[in-house]
Design a protein that fits this description.
By secondary structure, the chain is mainly beta. Helix content is 0%, strand content 46%. It has no helices and 6 strands. It is globular and about 45 Å long. The N and C termini lie far apart (40 Å).
Length: 135
Amino acid sequence: MTDDGGVRFPSNLDVKAGRIVGDDARAFRTRSGGIRIAFRIAVPRAGGQPPKRDRSGKPLPYDFFTVVAYGERWLSLLPRLKRGSKVLVMGWTQSRDLDDGRVVVETVAERIAVLDTGSLDHPPPPAEMARIEEE
């Protein structure tokens, strides 16, 4: 809340809904020893947005974003973050400078909701079975 009773929104609020594309979400061990999960999502472009085209001029109906989330709490969700899963992500946008000089822009998730309903007959495996890769 602000001093005048109004609601204050974070200056870098990022909310996206889309489907996981490419690979399933993956877990990595960071240089500091923590856990980072990462995946890409395709988000449909709204009708009022300017058209986006590929190199041949063909219209592209989606924007693509990298989502990352930090901490062991995400390992239990990892089995449900599969290619094609519909997700809602809330967090913020950050940029990182890589060692080779490139800059990466990504959504850092604070909340992730898997919107697809999964089968209750086949619960996800325990978090300790999640494969964690080295970065």
